[in-house]
Each structure stands twice: as structure tokens, then as C-alpha cells.
Design goal:
Blueprint lengths: L8 H8 L5 E5 L5 H14 L8 E5 L2 H14 L8 E4 H12 L10 E3 L1 H15 L8 H13 L4 H7 L5 H17 L2 E3 H14 L1 H10 L2 E4 L7 H11 L5 E5 L14 H4 L1 H4 L4 E5 L1 E2 L4 H11 L11 E2 L7 E6 L2 H17 L5 E5 L5 H10 L5 E2 L9 H14 L4 H7 L9 H14 L3 H10 L5 H20 L4 H11 L2 H8 L2 H23 L3 H10 L12 E5 L8 E6 L15 H15 L2 E10 L3 E2 L2 E2 L8 H4 L6 E3 L4 E7 L11 H18 L3 E8 L2 E7 L5 H10 L4
Parallel strand pairs: 1-7, 1-8, 2-3, 2-6, 4-5, 6-7, 9-10, 11-16, 11-19, 12-14, 12-15, 13-14, 15-16
Antiparallel strand pairs: 17-18, 20-22, 21-22
Helix pairs in contact: 1-2, 2-3, 4-9, 5-6, 5-8, 5-18, 7-8, 9-10, 9-11, 14-26, 15-16, 17-18, 17-21, 17-22, 19-20, 20-21, 22-24, 23-24, 28-29
This protein binds a DNA duplex (15 and 10 nucleotides) through helix 4, helix 9, helix 19 and strand 17.
DNA sequence: GTCATCCTCGTTTTT
DNA sequence: CGAGGATGAC
């Protein structure tokens, strides 16, 4: 079977290098994932490796799934399958077998962000700290960032230089202790414990690195230090590692991703062969040229030259909207147009999640169906997490985090005070909360009402434990019943509660399907915990709303990059030099998702927290970095705007802010270049109607003329 | 201990 | 504007 004829020379080269380390530096749209996929297929087809000797690590579950299907597609008959997974799911797999070697029981629970914050709240209580002195979100962020750099509490204290490092150090310590006592791990621990396992148990390292003869890593530029350590360990014995990445698409440094991993691959893996993939198969040339021009403003890159055989193509358009509503309106109208032309996959991308709302509302108004990627995913909904917490407790009652989540959900009279006392009890006697509850019940430590409530709770969980022999879905069903959760929702009798009931039913259905996979209850829970929002992406949806981060690895014929404003992209919190380059890469990632047509849009006015920003927003500097010849302004020959101005044409005090951006822009336009024409200025009560005509000036000049104006 | 209401404060990006 | 915490009435 010859799979290689479908590849170009460089891709073929990368695929046929079957021993030793290989670094594939691949530009956007150059087929890097395809190269890995073919390499897996090639190794199997040529009998260079058995499928189970191959391990491929991707960035998201979705990508893993896709790669799996593609491999199966290339090799019709597969007796076994290669392991294709994410770092985190790999870690879970390893740790479920060997947790005891690093101090955990194999039934450890995985905490998500919410759970982490619950734990931190308890730590705060123990250390007598208040959220307003040091916001939990901050300690959470600091702890996670440290772990992403492979720092424990001590290293953090020594190396961070934070002014409040000492107190965070204490929080960090207690947090970690709490996790250990609950036999729980957070996302970061999954990686760290795996590293620890390989470090402290050379036998484990040997076992895994000889089990997998070939290691393939996708999106290598996004690996952080613990992931890097895992890669090193796994490639230890055979050194048959293929890493595929693009330094221009490194956008996860906030999660500890270290671009050095890719820049220093050749030093880390001596004898590495470097292959560059520079032909882009995705985008037409206006898109590719603009993207290339943009990213060439970055200093920290190896640099490569992308080229395409798709000449011509539509010009990139910019639309400047007076308000976010107008921006959404424009996007919807254009989407409508493209849909009518028969386009099937259109994406609207933005920097921050909150921007999705304006587009959702507009799309609904236009009755255009869409999918939102990100936001609150199914497994993140409260009702789902609650029911799953019950399920976790039934498997492992000592899981404090889950216990706290549902001990009073639905409320059964075990409030804050009781919970605090239980905590105290558990700290004093060094046992789990579940054990404390039982001690309390046995020794009658609480008033009659509370006592009964606790008894009832114990009973619910114990009954659940007895059900575990039943099929998973009926366990879930019975738990939803016995806990009183369904009843609570029914009694609420609102549309929202009904929706929640539907969601629970959907969970039961998912549990029913799970039986078919042959996985255990534990696997079911692991899967739920590691499922990310981006995994729910449906490639066939006509319109997709998505953040720039989530869009990585995807492609769409038509892309709208919305909110191209200073402060949004680049985000106001990333204006220092390094962070700025990352923002530029993020923008680059967005641009290079487009196959045929790329739009930029931004709004003169931006609302934060429901109120307007302090002045007109300025166009993103990234727009300015794109050569003018590659940009075209959407034709809006004349527009009518309304706003508050006093009759003589000057702006009323207090009202100028609202319309500051475009009104002032129109005026300076007139001033500075002498071409702009204010067609009409008519008072309308307290309002003023201004009609402006935009002639064909250079687009950047015009964007800037708006932005630079100061209103007097 | 619970529920309702008021208030505060904050939005980067994610496994 | 909205979520989630803090406060106060039962």
C-alpha cells in the first residue's frame, strides 16, 4: 500500500524518517497534522511498528478523535489501535495504574477549576484569610501558573518575587495538603505526578518508553515544562520522536507553554532532523500574504516563508462600526449573503468570550442558526456536575470536594455552620469529611434536626454504593432520584429547571451509551472531567462563534475577526513586549484559519460592564501592520448617525462620550485631509443627526484619523 | 439554617 | 450587565 503519493516532498521526507528525532516546523495550513497522521499509518503499513507501540499526543480530545478516525480511514483493517490522546488523558491513564507510587490511591478524583476554588475557600477559612484581602482568583491563578512551570510551593517562594509570595506560599502549601488528604488532584497535578512517577521510578520510565516505540507530538510549541519532561521520559529509550509545531502559533504561554521547547529541540534531541513545511494549502494569497506580513513583525521567531499555489482570491475587508450592535449587524448581513451563496462553514472569532453575546443576539434576530464553542459546556453545567459529584462520592466517599459540593444540594439543612464544624472535626482527627460525618452521627454531635439531615445524607450515599453493580445509567438515574435532586427541580417548575431536568436525562442517556464502550464508571468520570469546551465543536455547523484560542487547528472558508481594537487584540493586559508578540501570533492564528475570505471589523464604541469605555476605541495596531494594498474598506457610501449635540454643532457636555468616536472622527477627517464631507448636521431636540460621507482615502489613514482625534 | 435582596466587583486566553 | 458574595429578616 502506498500512502505517500498524496504527500508533497517535504511531508514525504518527514514521514519516511522512521528512526531518530524529527522536528517538523510547519506553517499554518501546511498539513502538519496530516503529516503525523500519515506517519502513523506509514509505520503500521510498513510494519515498522505495531499499532500499540505508537503514541500520538494531541492538544485537544477533539483533535485526537479526528486523528484516530483519519488513521483508521487510511488503514482499513486495524486489529489494534495506536494510542492517540492528550497529555492529560495520558497522565490519567498512567496514574490510574500507578498512583500508589506517588502517594495517591488509584481512585483519586480530578478537580476542575470550580473544585479548586472550593478547596481554596476552605483553605482561606483555615488560614483566616478573606477573599477581599487576596482574591481567590488570584491565588488560584498564581498556584496554577507555578505548577505549569513545574514549581512546587517552595520553588514558588524562592523564585516568584511576588510581593505577597509568603502568604501565597502558605495558601499553596495548605491547598496541596488538602488535595492530598482528599486523594484529589487538579489538572496540573496530573502532569506533575506523572513527571514525578517517571523521575522517581526509573523502572516506570523504562517500561513506558519501551512500550511506545514511536512518539508523535502535535502542536509542540504549546508544551509546558511538565509536558516537556513527560515527552523526554517517553522518548528516553528509543528516541523515535516526531514533534510537529509552529513557533508562530504559540499562544499558550499563560499556561506555561514554553517556546524554547521548540527552538531548542535540536539541542534536546541530538541528531534531530529538521523538516520545514512551507507550502500552504489552505488560504488564498491575499489572506496568506496579510498574515505573513503581520507575523513578520515578531522578533522572536525562526522564520519561514509560506507560499501558496492558490493565486488570486478575494481581498480582505475591513468594516468600521459605530457601535457593537452595528458591528454584529454587519457581520450577520454578510453571513447571510455568504450562506445564500452556498457557503457552509463560516466563523466569527473574537479575543474574549464576552464578545460572543452581541453576535449571539444578532444571529438570533436574523434567525441564523449557529454554534457557540466555549462558554459553559455540557459537563460544566451545575446540575451535571452535581449529579456527577454524587456519583463520585458513591465510588469514593472520602472525596471531600464532591462531598462539599452536594452535602447541601438540594438543601437539606446542612448549612455553613455545620459544614464548618465538620471541617474542624476532620482537621482535628485527620480524617475525611465523610468519616467526620459518620463520627458526628454516631456520637450525636449535632442537634436533632441536623443529626437527622446528616443521617439522611449518609443513607443516600450508602444506598448509592449498594447500587454499583447495576448498569451505570440506572445508577445515575437512581442517584438523581434518591438525592432529591430531580424532585427539587420539579418543584421549582420554571423553564430553567425543566431544562436542567432535560440535561440530567441527557446525562443518563450518555451513561447508557457509555456501556457500549466497555469503559468503567471511573473512565466515565475521567472522560467527563477532561472533556473541554472545544471538544464539542461540530465541523458541519453553518456558523461558528469561537475565541481565537479555540480556533487553533480549525479552518473555515469565511472568517470574521471581530473586535479588532486596541485593548481587545492586543488585549490591554498584554502590552509588554513578549506578551505583545503572543497577541500578534494569536491574531495570526485567527487570520490563517480563513480559506477564501477574511473580514476584519471593529467598533468605535465598546461597552465594558454594561457601560461605555472612556473614549473612542482605536483600531488594532495589528491592522496597521498589514500592507495597505491587502486591505479594502467595506463600501459604506454614507451613513446616518444619531447622538446628543447642542444645536450650534458643538458637543453638549456629558453627551460627547457616547458618540465621541465616530462623530469626532468624521470631523477630523474633514480637517486633516480636506476630503471628508459632513453632508448634514441637523439638530433633533437634544439629539443631533450627522450624516457623513467617506470618500476613497487610504484606509489606514482613515482608521487612524478617527483614532487620533481628541475632542475639545 | 434558609431565603431574599442588595451590593460589589470584575472579563484574557484553557487542559 | 451579570455572577456571586455579604447582609438581614424570618
Amino acid at each position: 500500500m502506498n500512502l505517500l503519493h498524496e504527500l508533497n516532498e517535504q511531508q514525504k521526507h518527514a514521514v519516511t524518517l522512521t528512526t531518530g528525532p524529527v522536528l517538523v516546523l510547519a506553517g499554518a495550513g501546511s498539513g502538519k497534522t496530516r503529516t503525523i497522521t500519515y506517519k502513523i499509518a506509514h509505520l503500521i503499513a510498513q510494519q515498522l511498528a505495531r499499532p500499540e507501540q505508537i503514541l500520538a499526543v494531541t492538544f485537544t480530545n477533539k483533535a485526537a478523535e479526528e486523528m484516530r478516525t483519519r488513521v483508521v480511514g487510511l488503514l482499513q483493517a486495524l486489529s489494534a489501535s495506536p494510542l492517540i490522546c492528550t497529555f492529560h488523558s495520558l497522565a490519567v491513564r498512567v496514574l490510574r495504574r500507578h498512583a500508589h507510587r506517588v502517594g495517591y490511591r488509584p481512585d483519586f478524583t480530578i478537580c476542575d477549576t470550580d473544585d479548586q476554588k472550593t478547596i481554596l475557600r476552605n483553605v482561606y477559612e483555615e488560614l483566616k484569610l478573606a477573599d477581599k484581602d487576596l482574591p481567590i482568583r488570584r491565588s488560584h491563578a498564581v498556584i496554577s501558573r507555578s505548577k505549569n512551570k513545574s514549581w512546587g510551593p517552595e520553588q514558588y517562594l524562592q523564585r516568584s518575587g511576588d510581593y505577597d509570595a509568603e502568604i501565597i506560599f502558605k495558601i499553596f502549601l495548605s491547598y496541596q495538603k488538602y488535595l492530598e488528604q482528599s486523594n484529589a488532584v487538579d489538572f496540573d497535578d496530573l502532569l506533575l505526578l506523572t513527571v514525578k512517577l517517571f523521575e522517581e521510578h526509573p523502572a516506570m520510565r523504562r517500561e513506558y518508553s519501551s512500550r511506545y516505540q514511536y512518539i508523535l507530538i502535535d502542536e509542540y510549541q504549546d508544551t509546558n515544562p511538565p509536558q516537556y519532561e513527560i515527552v523526554k521520559s517517553l522518548a528516553d529509550v528509543q528516541q523515535n520522536i516526531t514533534a510537529v509545531g509552529d513557533e508562530d502559533q504559540s499562544i499558550y504561554s499563560f499556561r506555561g507553554a514554553d517556546i524554547r521547547n521548540i527552538l531548542e529541540f535540536e539541542r534536546d534531541f541530538p541528531g534531530a532532523v529538521v523538516v520545514k513545511l512551507e507550502q500552504n494549502y489552505r488560504s488564498t494569497s491575499p489572506i496568506l500574504e496579510a498574515a505573513t506580513a503581520l507575523v513578520s513583525h515578531n522578533v522572536h521567531r525562526k522564520g519561514k516563508t509560506l507560499w501558496t499555489e492558490n493565486p488570486g482570491g478575494e481581498p480582505n475587508e475591513i468594516y468600521v462600526a459605530p457601535t457593537p450592535e452595528a458591528e454584529a449587524d454587519f457581520v450577520c448581513r454578510s453571513i447571510h449573503h455568504h450562506l445564500q451563496e452556498g457557503e457552509r462553514n463560516i466563523a466569527v472569532m473574537y479575543r474574549t468570550n464576552f464578545q460572543s453575546r452581541q453576535f449571539e443576539e444578532a444571529l438570533r434576530r436574523f434567525r441564523i442558526p449557529y454554534q457557540l464553542v466555549g462558554g459553559v459546556s455540557f459537563y460544566n453545567r451545575k446540575e451535571i456536575k452535581d449529579i456527577l459529584a454524587y456519583l463520585r462520592l458513591v465510588i469514593n466517599a472520602h472525596d471531600n470536594v464532591s462531598l462539599l459540593r452536594v452535602i447541601n444540594e438540594p438543601s437539606r439543612g446542612i448549612g455553613r455552620i455545620t459544614q464548618e464544624k465538620l471541617h474542624q472535626l476532620s482537621r482535628e482527627s485527620g480524617v475525611s469529611l465523610w468519616a467526620s460525618v459518620q463520627i458526628a452521627v454516631q456520637n450525636n454531635l449535632f442537634p436533632a434536626k441536623t443529626h437527622l439531615a446528616l443521617q439522611k445524607f449518609v443513607q443516600i450515599i450508602q444506598e448509592g454504593m449498594e447500587l454499583l453493580d447495576l448498569p451505570l445509567y440506572s445508577v445515575v438515574e437512581k442517584i438523581a432520584q434518591a438525592s432529591g435532586y430531580l424532585e427539587m427541580l420539579k418543584r421549582e417548575n420554571t423553564e430553567e429547571a425543566d431544562n436542567r431536568i432535560l440535561n440530567i436525562n441527557e446525562l443518563i442517556a450518555a451513561a447508557r451509551e457509555w456501556i457500549g464502550t466497555g469503559g468503567s464508571v471511573q473512565d466515565f468520570l475521567d472522560n467527563a472531567a477532561l472533556r473541554s469546551e472545544a471538544d464539542e465543536f461540530d465541523a458541519s455547523a453553518p456558523v461558528t462563534l469561537i475565541t481565537l484560542h479555540n480556533a487553533k487547528g480549525l479552518e473555515f472558508p469565511v472568517v470574521f475577526l471581530a473586535g479588532c481594537e486596541e485593548g481587545l487584540v492586543p488585549h490591554s493586559r498584554s502590552l509588554e513586549e513578549d506578551a505583545l508578540e503572543e497577541e500578534r501570533r494569536l491574531f495570526y492564528v485567527g487570520m490563517t484559519r480563513a480559506q477564501k475570505k477574511l473580514y476584519f471589523s471593529f467598533s468605535r464604541v465598546r461597552r465594558f460592564y454594561g457601560a461605555e469605555g472612556p473614549g473612542a476605541s482605536q483600531p488594532s495596531r495589528f491592522l496597521m501592520e498589514i500592507p495597505e494594498r491587502l486591505l479594502m474598506q467595506v463600501q459604506v457610501p454614507s451613513r446616518t448617525y444619531g447622538g446628543s449635540v447642542v444645536p450650534d454643532g458643538s458637543f453638549a457636555r456629558g453627551s460627547e462620550r457616547r458618540l465621541h468616536g465616530f462623530v469626532s472622527g468624521a470631523m477630523i477627517f474633514h480637517d486633516r485631509f480636506g476630503h471628508g464631507r459632513i453632508l448634514q448636521v441637523e439638530p433633533l431636540g437634544d439629539d443631533l443627526k450627522i450624516t457623513v460621507q467617506f470618500p476613497g482615502l487610504g484606509i489606514k489613514k482613515m482608521l487612524q484619523s478617527y483614532a487620533r482625534l481628541k475632542l475639545v
